[in-house]
Amino acid sequence: MSQTQLSRTPGTRTGPVKLDANENPWPPPPGVRRSIARAMAGATLHRYPSERATELRAALASYTGVPADRIVVGNGSDELISLALWALGPARRLGRAAEAVVVSPPTFQAYETVAEQLGLPVVRVPLGKDLLPDWPALAEAWAPSEAGSYRVMVLCRPNNPTGTVAPLEALEAFARRRPAGAPLLVDEAYAEFLPDNVLGLLSAGAGGPTGVFRTLSKAFGLAGLRVGYFLGTPDLVAALEAVRMPYNVSAPAQAAATVAVRAALDTGYVARNAAALGRERQRLARALRQLGLTAVPSAANFLLLDLGPAAGDVWRGLAERGVLVRRFSVAGLSSFLRVTVGLPAENRAFVQALAATLSGPGHGRAGAGLAGTARAAGEGE
């Protein structure tokens, strides 16, 4: 049974415990939700939306400190990743098509998928020690094969699916040493979970074309809206605008996102949500250690577990018990499962299901007394 089929198969009377998509279990607070509902209800539906999402970009400029004319809004950051690689590839918006796209797996699969769909070669430089970027190998891969050409570097911080974080100083130094004219794209979908960010790379001293992907799907708790945004140096913003289709974000989505971004500034709800998820992640990691499992240290809203050859059986066992987590089929990740940090009750359900699965036939790893450990996950909430 595929993960898609399982996600449509309720594991309990109320449906599965869905911890497979890195969604935020906490929606915006009631007051913000009411404001969003009013804004969406008041959206003009018989006219096309703002072509460049003017009000939303103004709100995002206040939120990020980046001027509105350096921001592009999209239908989720997925669309913006596609637009960026289209602009730098077949559309030749920097004068010629990129020679290749450089990625550092394991990472977000969309980079490779989009590049391959566009006919762009992909150069893979695996993560190095502690699942962090191998800077010397990446620098070598970033160098074009001929003068006047360029390769696109795509990095994710925090990285998905590992949750590891490239040190900011190392990334900034790497960016400054880039080959002449080489674009750097950084995916910051999980930026709100970190105390720092890469927006300083967009300054005049960045060393070349630079762009950052952001989304309202994670810490904002608005995955259903499908709103993302791109912050970039002027050359990359112009490149994306040249290939972006008009009216790509609906009027209700623009209205809702504008309210949410303003609320993030006025009420701090996004920062509070991110902090609460961080505390819940720590509790979940402790419960897993009591089961004899060690997750990769994560700064995002998920944990990555190496379960060896049993990963597939454990995934199926969890699904049969009504808990959905992420399984991978790509090279290097077949032994791993990724679990989204959910509500305290959801995390307890996951640990209980995991304990039961591991203590079942063929899984002697967990030992006795697991039920009490499972109940301890998320205690105090």
Can you walk me through this structure?
With 381 residues, this protein is α/β, with parallel strands linked by helices. The chain has two domains: 3-22 and 269-376, Aspartate Aminotransferase, domain 1 (Alpha-Beta Complex), CATH 3.90.1150; 30-267, Aspartate Aminotransferase, domain 2. 39% of the residues lie in helices and 13% in strands. The protein has 13 helices and twelve strands. It has helices at residues 3-7, 30-41, 54-64, 76-88, 110-117, 135-142, 168-176, 234-243, 251-267, 269-290, 311-320, 344-358, 370-376; strands spanning 17-18, 71-74, 100-103, 122-124, 151-156, 184-187, 210-215, 228-232, 302-306, 323-324, 326-327, 336-340. The strands form three sheets. It has a seven-stranded mixed beta sheet with strand order 2-8-7-6-5-3-4, sandwiched between helices. A three-stranded antiparallel beta sheet has the order 9-12-11, with helices on one face. It is globular. The two termini are 35 Å apart. The relative contact order is 0.16. Mean pLDDT is 91; it is low at 1-13 and 364-381.
* C-alpha termini separation: 35 Å
Q: What is the spatial order of strands in the main beta sheet?
A: 2-8-7-6-5-3-4
Give the CATH level 1 class of the largest domain.
Alpha Beta
Assign an overall shape.
globular
**Percentage of helical residues?**
25-40%
The major sheet is characterized as: 7 strands, mixed
CATH superfamily of the largest domain, by name, is Type I PLP-dependent aspartate aminotransferase-like (Major domain)
Kindly give the count of domains: 2
Please trace the helix and strand order, writing H or E for each element: HEHHEHEHEHEHEEEHHHEHEEEHH
Broad structural category: alpha/beta
- Count of DSSP E strands? 12
Q: Which CATH architecture of the largest domain?
A: 3-Layer(aba) Sandwich
